[in-house]
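Deliverable D4.2, example record:
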Amino acid sequence: MNGVTISFDKTRTYINLSLSPSEFNKEVDERAIKLELEKGETKRLFVSDTALKSACDTANHYFKTGDGTVVQERIGERKNAEVVYRIPEDGMSANLVLTTPYGGKLPSLGTLKSLALKNNIRRGLGTKIIQSMLKEAKTAPPGTIIEKTVAKGLPARNGRSSRFIPLVPNALERVLRPQTGAGERVDMRNLGEVICVKANVPVLRRTEPTPGRTGFDVKGNLLDPKPGEWVEFRHGKGTAQSDSDQNILVSTIAGMPKYQDQTMNIDDTFICSGVNVGTGHVTYEGAVLVNGDVTEKMEIKAKGDVTINGFVESARIESDGDIIITEGAMGKVNDNPGEFNCQLIAAGSVHVQHGQGIDIQCAGNITIGRQLAYSRLRCAGSVTVGNIDNPMGNLFACDIISQDKVEAGTLGAISGSTLQVDFSPGFNLLIERKEALDELLRQIRENNSKHKEKINILKSKKVPKELKAKVADALEMFNNESALLEWIESKVLEVKETKDRYHSDIKLIANKRLYPGVSAKLNNRAWRSDREYDRSRVKFEGHQWSCEPMIS
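Output generated by the structure prediction step:
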């Protein structure tokens, strides 16, 4: 290009541009010069677009006006890599920002480590990540910005507060975890000995709180952990702290242990060899243990768990705890449909080894050892038929209301008998609770907003001495209202998360086979099996039911 000269200075660091308008045949093209700069040694060097444009505009002006003044401009330079360390306010990490060089040099690993030390980065620096950045920078185009976290602190780990470890199992846990014999096979009939403890037996142990682990930030400052706290025993019925060890809870009476909500209770236990017309009905303020059968039309009412090591026939059993029947339960078919003369009603969970023609109502889970048919189930938890770890039992011809999964080996029967599962009541309770909380939240928000305006007006005014006490009371009431508003907001969020989780929790699982006549319902959304399926899972997703095969 006539009149255009590109050259280096003596140190070969800077690019100089010389434009002589008197030698131009036409106006100089900025883009043509840029293309020329992208060749040879200058192609990896930094070029200032602003300086180049300014020089070209000036030279073109001189050319048009006939001025032959030569335009000299420094338009580029050789730049080494730029390095910046960024440390956030908490000091728990450090980022290295590396801008690749324009024909210049990359720093060495040692240089970057020295710079880190100058930036007060003393701990947690990762050499490998810095090496990978340098390797990436060698092939990256000039001016590429590479940023990665190269140092990390170690957060302090707070200590764990004391925990409670039951030294005796609950009766239901014992039943759901059958004993093993000499071999590896599980003997479903060997349920171990009945759990009843004598007086002065250790039943609950409290662990010591841990001090936690000291942490550090990248600057080397130590971060002190918060040590765990001693948690006091919740003294249940029939328990007391040991005189010899304050971390041990012992039984003060003989009875059946029940650990729930971090509280160990020893229920005074009524033990009998059977319940029949000879013994009469059983009503007891503690636990009831029946080492035999419960015969027709007999009743048991207990404040604690009811454990029956036998068979229940057409009887009524009520418990404020769990009901455990290690054999089976059966009711006669009544002439009136929907009536069951074998009823199990529990505030906790219910376990029956096998059953037919029974009515189960509980606030916990229902577990069936082998098979359940022609029954009605109402529970606030799940229904499992078979071994708790791998349910392979049979469930058919039942009417079920559940708030969690229903799982068995076989759902339904080859005859096509109806198995109905309705998940609606639990979901509707959540909806009602959410709507009530939403309305309460709306009202409190409106009131809080109005009160805030009035409080701000009060703060802006000069309050007479005689009214200061009343203003202080008003401020305290406002703060209490604001705290209540915050608590209700958290509860609304909690209920919303529970509602969303409900959809994923409800499902039917058939680990062997699912037969025609099985149905699942959630309000106006329903699914019904019209054919036979192999191992399948029926789930609620995207506001509709679907059935999918279980591959593994």
